[in-house]
Amino acid sequence: MSSQVKFQVVFSLVMGAMMVFLMTFVITLVNVGWIEGFVGLWGKAFVIAYAVAVPLIYFIAPLARRLTARLLGQTA
User: Fold this and answer.
1) What is the DSSP letter of 73?
2) Cα gap 27→56, rounded to integer Å
3) Of 44, 52, 53, nearest to 25 (Cα)?
4) Are 15 and 57 in contact (CB under 8 A)?
């Protein structure tokens, strides 16, 4: 596995964890409020969202970098 592929995998895992952690917390809190069992509901949402987010980040991040570079008139 090349260092670039390794970087992309680790980046996807870390970025996925950070974004999913915060987003599922906020959305779960907005949807159900601070109720008994909140942590369990949030945990379930986290696991599902993380399983979806990591592969998406892995494949979409390079596209997002290229698009951002193009929008800013830079090279990726």
Assistant:
1) T
2) 19
3) 44
4) yes
pLDDT tens for 5-64 read 999 999 999 999 999 999 999 999 999 999 999 999 999 999 999 999 999 999 999 999
Apex 17 CA angle, 66 and 74, nearest 5: 15
* Beta strands in 16-71, from DSSP E residues, in sequence order: none
The pair of three-digit structure tokens given for residue 32, joined into one six-digit string: 């159900």
Where does residue 36 rank: exposed (0-12), middle (13-18), buried (19+ CB within 10 A)? exposed
For the record, the structure tokens of 11 come out as: 């980046």
Q: Which residue type sits at 53?
A: A
CB 3 within 8 A of CB 21: no
